[in-house]
Fold this protein.
Amino acid sequence: MDPLALTLIELGAVVFCLGMLARLAGRIGMSPIPLYLVGGLFFGAGGLVKLEGMHEFAHLSSEIGVILLLLMLGLEYTAAELVTGLRRSWQAGVLDLVLNFLPGAGLAVMLGWGVVGAMVMGGVTYISSSGIAAKVITDLGRIGNRETPVILSILVFEDLAMAIYLPILTATLAGVSFLVGLQTVGISLAVVSLVLLVALRHGHHVSKAVHSENSEVFLLNLLGLALLVAGLAAAMQVSAAVGAFMLGIAISGATAHSATRILEPLRDLFAAIFFVVFGLNTDPRTIPPVLGWALLLAVVTAATKMITGIWAAKRAGIGVPGRFRAGAALIARGEFSIVIAGLAVASGVVPPQLAALATAYVLIMAIMGPLAARFVEPLVKMLRPAKPRVVGAA
Amino acid sequence: MNVDEVDLPGLGRRKDFMTASGRRIGVVEYREGQTELIVSTWDDPDTCQASIPLTADEAATLGNLLGGQRLAMQLSEAHREVPGIVTRQFSIGAESPFHDKAMGDACIRTRSGVSIVAIMREGEVLPSPGPDVVLHPGDLLVAVGTQEGLDTAAGILRNG
């Protein structure tokens, strides 16, 4: 068959199947990410059908998917929100980091994956899925709840932590010497601070440079700039994803809102392809041997996120049911865990079992997270019945 | 009244307060401009029993209803010494013949002896409105007069 025709047919079939999976996910009220991953596992390496024709396009698309995911993560919070979040909730943020990084890193060391593996798995278990958490909070009508700002500020902290973690990860994966690594980290810390400062003081200038009332012009400006910045960051050894993320932070105010709106469909498409490609590159036969470890890690890190949420909510003066709601909302891991694992797999310095473990782990957490958030409330109510309020003396 | 204002990073702001009956009530203002009315459940003030999305018009009308009630209560208090004088509120619906017309066109004072002492509009009070004030749908008129006069005024505002 003509290679172009083959590519189009494969790509069309894959994207169409993703649409069906997303519809199914919407029907049963879950995140589509685990379904995309499972879809990817079915095909590709070790799966039922090998998709050779779309390889090149899929590879580039998944790179763009990562860039868009990080760009939109940066757009989500303004620089001012990031700075106040850091100031107000750094204790909870640090507890979150310690409690949730260690289980993943510890398991990686136990399995003999070394420092690099520990860096990667720690990141995979640390970062909550802000996408799933936001959707759960909205769907369950909890935006007005008092624990919601606590959850959001922890997500904000994780957001900032990513900006520092990703350059460290890229340096570690590149296998640079300690000194060069330190230099890279130093540069990225300086860049993070500079971008925050610029965004706080002169954010409107950056926004003005990309903004346009014409949505076509705006989209092309924005996407072009994002790819440009990502490419330059990659050339400077600071990971394309971080560059896109920084650009997202620098864009602020009304421009950021319209940018989010305009990029959403693109992000959905390219991120979906990214998840499928990650699944494609993972051999499903490597999953059963690590499934036990994934389950153990899931149980431990669900508990550690729960503890983080409970502690942070308690400090904010929130009642017992609210503390459990806060903990459960943080359990879901998703897109960014896969982004981290994807960066590691692409570098080729981690064992293939790591991809399998990350896939299985995210599959479990992306399904378990929303369920935990939904059912924690009735469970807490059942275990400690509310005291009926005495109204008047009647 | 102690109103709590909390930032919701990535979403907007929440403003609420605790009522004497132990419920938390307030609004969530989204970055995109929508408003949601929130009311907590009776057994857990941290959670929300209802979050009701309101359009700008609806929010303004609700503000008028609540604010108007307070104004009317204060006025009734002031007029208690004068027997036969009552305070009542009239809302201007979209179907009223006087919406988007000057209040003077209705000749309420001449025809019913009732005084319009204030107009509540979008949560703000226009005290002692003159005859040139244009009535908008959603306005709440606070009127003072006799019982019969107020009935007549209600008829005028409804039917012209």
